[in-house]
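wait is this the right file?? whatever heres the structure
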């Protein structure tokens, strides 16, 4: 799951190969096979192997085949011991080779599986439909595209390209290796009547692996429209991942309802996927309900919850969940600690964050990654320690990326450290001179300091390089339709209903004591012009639209592509109190929950 976005290993159904030497089976052989099925561990298995030798059944191909498959494919099995059994077989056939290949793939040992495959060809034993699903599965898990493509060639060479299990495995392999075009090619070449549920699972998972979330949902809708397949858990986890990344809460809720109606119980993977979806779509109440009802939690569940609570601004609660995780005996990994450090950053817990960073390395022996250093930079920057953050970046054991420098530059803007901001902007431009963002932030800092000549010079440099500022926008969904607003939006300028609502809001805000923060308008214009521009910020337009088009007392959800300005933040707090509405705003960095004139961030963001 960014760190916590949800991904899973697709478990494709495998074709079941049975040993063909079943004619004339003796009662002794039948009895041995029945006893073999009762083995619970490798010690019991070795005792049974001794019995086979005592009874003189080591030359029974049926007993030997079952002995090999049990040892190679059981969860408690041993490939080393299976290899000894295999070496004793006089003239192994495709069944024994396929069994050994499956065993090596189970242990993620693709190299040994390939050596065995080559030995199979050297002995002129032809691979079949049972050979390729296993070996392609290994290529998929280990992202071995080159070998996977070679096996695709062999699929045609040995005439098994029309087998549905082989086709599904090819779709899955290409998807896991990031070659979605090839996955789609195999899918499109299949006869529509040959496609089964595993086929749809594979193609949807392939698009999920490539983060093509809209396409995932389109394929899911195509699957469900056929009314002949009932989506299984693996498909629905991919759909939930798509809803998570697109912020499609309504479809996520529908998928949750489908799961409840069609499955007798949800496993921990599905429940954690639901948890992740609700957290990232802004529905904290639903996420907490799922967490409370989960009978089984794993490290991933805790990691998702810690990161989610931090992203919503509930850092103290996130640290409480982390403590619970440790009490339950789960060992934190690097992803969990990214969530923990983010929680400290979002809540302003500087000393606690630094202490956690030390514990991560000293107690849990986790080597800090650039993400951990990024959290520290953010933590120190928000606390106003921008110079210390700069020194930290300079002394890191790895090269800083642009994310770290942007975090520091934004902090320089907030804390008005112009001198350091100029240095950081230069670092960013050295990394990538063709991005407008450092120029925009630096220009805003100059404007805040009323250095209008520097503003003009910075914008001129942008223009000379042909760089354009990305416009800020806010999105609101009403009755399953998405509406987008930009600041001073001319598309909505002539909408009387919206203008009337904005006027009503301004009148009531003024009555309650709200005063616009005109320092947020970074233009050399008079105060009236500044107030006018502030009143038409995209978030305010979206809120007005939401008040008009949603039921009284209902929740308003807004997504914006940039960090919220101080005036919009203060404005939204007043609106939540005056109109008695809960308003959730997701900006570039986090969620803000506004209710009764307060925000979950406690004015620290």
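ok assuming it is, sequence goes like this
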């Amino acid at each position: 799951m960014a760190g916590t976005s949800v991904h899973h290993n697709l478990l494709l159904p495998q074709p079941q190969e049975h040993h063909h030497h079943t004619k004339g089976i003796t009662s002794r052989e039948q009895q041995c096979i029945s006893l073999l099925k009762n083995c619970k561990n490798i010690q019991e298995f070795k005792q049974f192997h001794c019995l086979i030798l005592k009874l003189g059944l080591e030359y029974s191909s049926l007993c030997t085949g079952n002995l090999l498959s049990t040892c190679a494919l059981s969860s408690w099995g041993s490939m080393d011991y299976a290899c000894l059994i295999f070496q004793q077989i006089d003239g192994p056939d495709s069944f024994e080779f396929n069994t050994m290949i499956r065993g090596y793939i189970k242990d993620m040992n693709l190299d040994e599986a390939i050596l065995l495959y080559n030995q199979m060809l050297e002995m002129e034993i032809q691979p079949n439909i049972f050979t390729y699903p296993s070996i392609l599965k290994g290529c998929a898990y280990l992202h071995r595209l080159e070998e996977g493509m070679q096996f695709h060639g062999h699929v045609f060479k040995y005439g098994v390209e029309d087998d549905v299990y082989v086709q599904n495995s090819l779709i899955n392999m290409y998807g896991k290796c990031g070659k979605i075009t090839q996955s789609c090619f195999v899918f499109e070449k299949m006869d529509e009547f040959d496609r089964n549920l595993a086929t749809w699972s594979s193609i949807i998972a392939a698009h999920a692996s490539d983060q093509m979330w809209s396409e995932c949902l389109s394929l899911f809708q195509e699957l469900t429209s056929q009314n002949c397949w009932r989506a299984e858990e693996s498909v629905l986890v991919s759909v939930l991942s798509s809803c998570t990344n697109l912020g499609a809460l309504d479809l996520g809720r529908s998928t949750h309802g489908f799961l409840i109606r069609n499955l007798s119980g949800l496993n921990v993977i599905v429940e954690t996927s639901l948890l992740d979806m609700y957290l990232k779509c802004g529905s904290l109440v639903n996420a907490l309900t799922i967490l409370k009802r989960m009978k089984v939690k794993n490290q991933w569940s805790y990691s998702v919850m810690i990161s989610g609570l931090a992203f919503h601004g509930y850092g103290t609660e996130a640290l409480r969940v982390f403590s619970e995780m440790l009490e339950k005996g789960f060992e934190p990994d690097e992803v969990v600690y990214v969530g923990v450090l983010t929680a400290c950053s979002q809540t302003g817990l500087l000393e606690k964050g630094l202490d956690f960073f030390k514990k991560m390395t000293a107690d849990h022996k986790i080597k800090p990654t650039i993400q951990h250093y990024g959290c520290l930079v953010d933590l120190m920057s928000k606390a106003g320690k921008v110079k210390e953050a700069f020194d930290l970046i300079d002394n890191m054991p790895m090269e800083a990326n642009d994310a770290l420098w942007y975090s520091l530059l934004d902090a320089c803007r907030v804390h008005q450290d112009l001198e350091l901001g100029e240095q950081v902007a230069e670092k960013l431009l050295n990394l990538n001179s063709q991005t407008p963002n450092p120029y925009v932030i630096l220009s805003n800092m100059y404007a805040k300091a009323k250095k209008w000549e520097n503003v003009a010079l910075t914008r001129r440099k942008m223009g000379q390089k042909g760089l354009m500022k990305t416009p800020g926008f806010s999105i609101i969904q009403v009755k399953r339709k998405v509406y987008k607003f930009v600041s001073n939006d001319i598309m909505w300028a002539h909408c009387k209903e919206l203008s009337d609502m904005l006027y009503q809001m301004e009148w009531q805000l003024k009555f309650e004591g709200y005063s616009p923060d005109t320092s947020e308008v970074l233009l050399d214009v008079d105060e009236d012009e500044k107030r006018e521009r502030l009143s038409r910020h995209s978030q305010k337009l979206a809120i007005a639209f939401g008040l008009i088009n949603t039921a009284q007392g209902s929740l308003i959800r807004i997504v914006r592509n940039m960090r919220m300005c101080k005036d919009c933040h203060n404005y939204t707090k007043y609106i939540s109190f005056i109109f008695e509405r809960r308003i959730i705003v997701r900006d570039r960095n986090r969620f803000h929950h506004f209710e009764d004139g307060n925000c979950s961030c406690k004015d620290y963001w």
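The two ends are 24 Å apart (CA to CA). so i think its the right one actually
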